[in-house]
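hey so i finally got around to running the thing on that chain from the lab meeting. sorry it took forever, my laptop kept dying and i had to restart like 3 times. anyway pasting the input first so we r on the same page abt which one it is
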Amino acid sequence: MRDFFTRVASGTSQIVGSHWSFLIAIMIVLVWALTGPLFHFSDTWQLIINTGTTIVTFLMVFLIQNTQNRDARAMHLKLDELIAAVKTARNEMIDIEHLSDQELERIAKRYQEMREACEEDVEAIAEDTAREVAEDTAKRVVEDEKTAA
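ok and heres what got predicted. didnt touch it at all, straight out
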């Protein structure tokens, strides 16, 4: 049953995600709107579009969730493969999506601290570089003045 649902969900998401499906949906709404005067904008006429959109929306929630779950799972597996393949990567990061929120927060805080340390290093390097450029420029100006004299 699971494989059947996966195949149906995958096929349906491909079809529903196409521009043709969007055009068909627009056509349905236009036909419904144009038939309003014919049915005197009755409650039944309104009930038809309300019921149809409610059913489609209800089913699409499950379809979208299934598609997002499969995409997220595939992405995690790809990232796990990259982590495993890179020698300097931390293998404990493989499969971390199953950790508790507190554990994920602890890891996120550690990476935030690492990023802040890198920013400080970058700022120090930028200051050193600016100082070196200024000193080199001053030396060239002095040398140019000596050469001109």
